[in-house]
Design brief:
The protein has 264 residues and is of the alpha/beta class. The radius of gyration is 20 Å and the shape is elongated. It binds zinc ion. Zinc ion (ZN) binds next to helix 3.
Amino acid sequence: MCKNCNDPSAKHKGKVKVRFVRRGQGFTAGEGDIFRAQAGSTVLAKNGSTGVFLNGSTGTAYEGSTFTAEAGSVVHAKYGSIGRARKGSTIIANYGSHIEDEAGAKIIRRADEEEHAVAGSLVSSYAELSAMERSLVDHAWAISKTAYCRYSNFPVGAAILAENEAGEKRIFDGHNIENASYGGTVCAERVAAFDAVKNGFRKFLIVAVVCAKCPGGSPCGFCRQVLREFGLNATVLNIFNTESTVVRWTVDQLLPDSFGPDSL
Ligand SMILES: [Zn+2]
C-alpha cells in the first residue's frame, strides 16, 4: 500500500515526489506524477499519473490514469481511467472507465455515443464552459446566497439566458422563496423563469442551477415542466462544484415525452 496514492498494489517506496495541489490551484498530472488534490483544487490526471482526490477537490481522470476519490470529491472519469470511489465521493463515469465503488459512492454514468437511446448528459469542467455559461454559473452561485429558505435551509440559485422576440438576450436569475404555508414555496428556477417571461424574454436558451448545500441537485418536476414551456431544447447546466464539474442536459432529456404548448 502506498500512503501517497492509496494504491494497495503500488510500490512508491522510498523518496517519492508527491505533488500536493492546494486550494485555488490547478495541476495537470503527467506520466509518473503522483498527486494529492486538496480541497478547492482541480487536477487533470493524464496517462501514467496516479493520485488521490481529497474532500472538496475536483478533477478529470483520463485514459491511463489511476485515482482514488475520497469522500467529498467529484471526479469525471474518462474512457480508460481506473478509479476507486470511496463512500461519499461522486464519480461521473464515461463509457470505458473502470470504477470500483464502495457502498455510498455516487456513480453517474454518462450516456456515450456507444450507448444509444440513453437520455443522458455531457460532462464538462468549469474551464470547458463558454464565457456565457460561466457567467450563468456565477450568477446562479451568487443569487443562491440570498435565498429565502428559512424552513428548509436549502439555498438554490438559478440563472437563465433568455431571448425576446427582437432577438435580444438577457440573463435572469432567481433563488428559492419559501413560505410559512410551505405550499406557497417557489423554486429558484421558476423565480428566474417568471421574471424572464414577465419581461418578454420567452425563449430560454441556457439554464444554470446550483443547490448550494447539495451540489449536483437537479430541477424538480414542477420546474422541468415550466422550463419545458419556454425552452424544450434549452441547455440545463447542473452544477456540481464552484470551479469544477458541470453536467449538461437538455430540458427535453430531463422531461422526455412531455406535454407542452404544441400538445393543445
Ligand atoms: Zn423546482
